[in-house]
Design goal:
Largest sheet: 6 strands, mixed
Number of strands: 14
Protein name: MBL fold metallo-hydrolase
Strand order of the largest sheet: 5-4-3-2-1-14
Helix content: 10-25%
InterPro entries: RibonucZ/Hydroxyglut_hydro (IPR036866)
Pfam families: Lactamase_B_3
Radius of gyration: 15 Å
Organism: Candidatus Lachnoclostridium pullistercoris
Number of helices: 4
Length: 197
Amino acid sequence: MAELLYQGHGSFRICTSEGAVIYVDPFAGEGYDKEADLVLVTHEHYDHNQVDLVHLKPGGRICRAADCLKDGKYRSWTECGVKIRSVAACNQNHPKDQCVGFLMEVDGRLLYLAGDTSETEEMTTELSKEPIDYAFLPMDGIYNMGREEAQRCAKIIHAAHTVPVHMKPGALFDEETAQAFQAEGKVIMRPGDTLNW
């Protein structure tokens, strides 16, 4: 069985059914006790790149945005049995040439971990065509899009489920924003909650 642990803010730990461990944007919360095969970093802001929290397995590695986006080309690859595709992420606080989000196919589920972003053209031209099971969208309204823009993006992407994350600077989670967010198939995950499939 695969598991996604929401650690809070924009941090996630994914364990595959085969035992691979992948962290995305380590910074927040608990759950850094498992050694990692792979650490994915969407961009180099301090609240997404605390890779020292993670212990790597022998042969484990860290893959940063700069490794996934070169000369305007987004990288796609398979690692640990997971298909990974970097995608556009940007806004006024996050330059497009320095940030990525990730599409990850883990044990038959397609996850969209948006990183820090606002609405992008690629949400319409690319992501809307993907059968995304879970989209994790930031919505702090300061460094990223606010709740209303995130709702519009959720409608464009039309994932089966959308999870509000990265909701309030300095907080792992914000209940008020999560409850107010409206999207078809909305799922609220609080720090420490898991998805299993």
